[in-house]
Amino acid sequence: MISFDEAFEKVMQHTQNWAVQTVDLLESTGRVLAEPVLADRDFPPFDRSTKDGIAIHFSAIEKGRSTFQIEGVLSAGMPQQSLSSADHCFEIMTGAVVPQNTDTVIMYEQVTLENGSATIQSIPKKGQNVHKKGSDAITGKVLLQPDCRITGAEIGILATVGKSHVSVKKLPKVCVISTGNELVDVSEIPLPHQIRKSNTLSLYAALSKENIIPELLHLTDDKKVIQENIARVLQENDVILLSGGVSKGKFDFIPEVMESLGVEKVFHRVAQRPGKPFWFGTQKECSTVVFSFPGNPVSTFANYHIYFAPWFYGCMGLPYPKKEVVLDQPIRNDLPLTRFVQVKTYAEKGRLFASPIKDGGSGDLASLSKSDGFICLRPREHTYEKGELVPVYDT
Ligand SMILES: Nc1nc2c(c(=O)[nH]1)N[C@H]1C(S)=C(S)[C@@H](COP(=O)(O)OP(=O)(O)OC[C@H]3O[C@@H](n4cnc5c(N)ncnc54)[C@H](O)[C@@H]3O)O[C@H]1N2
Ligand code: MOO
Ligand SMILES: [Mg+2]
């Protein structure tokens, strides 16, 4: 059995790269950008008024003028105009092009309009309320580097530079498989000896947060059925996530089936709780990566977040957000294995605290909604003290 740190390192050594694809702008939301995005013109592309008011040439103020004859009204979307005399002004709206021969905008609140003239009530600063052409970025500047997650902010930038199609990293094709004769569909009424499938649906939901829509498959505990189906699934997918069938039971066929299909075992069993019988391997010919999680619900859930999530970030070239929390009570782990304890986190005085949740072991599926993460407690003789910082995996 290997330690958690060794297992984690081995998983991270098997990151994959699934090439790139071009998608429509709005479909790129949540995806990882695969190209640099440059400013196609200056930002802003013209001297732009930032207030509704009047545009003047500041030299008129220096000469002591405070009343200006209004030459016209400018709205956003009008081509640039030209002021014919420094004794005049234009009324100008936010977003409109500042006219030639003007350099300063005074907002309506500081102006009185009367008989076609505007009188200013206070002395403005030269250049005020003008968002200068190219002041945010000049043409050709890199606005977005590749390997960033596309959120609403990036969509706005992509739209502004005219990217109706965006190059993004491809997502893996994923199959999520449940195994077990006791499992029935959500819509069924289970017999007394049966339970409804839940793990694979939790995995489906977690994957969909990453924009991955997996194929879902259920297999009975029949070696031949498992073998035939996994042979096909290996060919058709980049990643397989399994739940169940990896421990010591007479019907836990996954490890031997995987090896019979040429999936090379990287490790089986990790000194951790929950999630100990985790099996991880790769089929080199079709470069499919197999995460075979132990069937107990908390084990499947924990291992997805502890191993798969950072691995997937690694594949996408994204840094995995490492996080620590402050323990709000002492907790021991003098076992010779790494413990992952469910916690509820909360913020207080600018710090993030974690409160351990009592659960009924790794079969206690209902406990998962009371927590929002797992803290990682490596084996250690002395107690983890109240106030100590420990790593946390968000769920
Ligand atoms: N002799 C030993 N027995 C067990 C060991 C051990 O080391 N020696 N390890 C225990 C640990 S720890 C775990 S975790 C489980 C892992 O079992 P498997 O991966 O073989 O999973 P199954 O036997 O198929 O099922 C276990 C449990 O989980 C439920 N399950 C499975 N799949 C689902 C699903 N999709 N949705 C909901 N629930 C699911 C299943 O009904 C069982 O109750 O082994 C221990 N045993
Ligand atoms: O380690 Mo198992 O994953 O606790 O139930
Ligand atoms: Mg089992």
UniProtKB/TrEMBL annotation:
Q: What is its EC number?
A: 2.10.1.1
The Swiss-Prot or TrEMBL record lists the needed cofactor(s) as:
Mg(2+)
Q: Which superkingdom, per the lineage?
A: Bacteria
Gene Ontology molecular function, alphabetical? metal ion binding; molybdopterin molybdotransferase activity
Q: Pathway, per UniProt?
A: Cofactor biosynthesis; molybdopterin biosynthesis
Which EC class does it fall in?
Answer: transferase
- State a GO cellular component annotated for this protein: cytosol
The reaction(s) annotated as catalysed by this protein in its Swiss-Prot or TrEMBL entry are:
adenylyl-molybdopterin + molybdate = Mo-molybdopterin + AMP + H(+)
Q: Which Pfam families match?
A: MoCF_biosynth, MoeA_C, MoeA_N
Q: Which family does it belong to?
A: Belongs to the MoeA family.
Q: What is this protein called?
A: Molybdopterin molybdenumtransferase
Q: Taxonomy-wise, where does this protein's organism fall, top ranks first?
A: Bacteria, Pseudomonadati, Bacteroidota, Flavobacteriia, Flavobacteriales
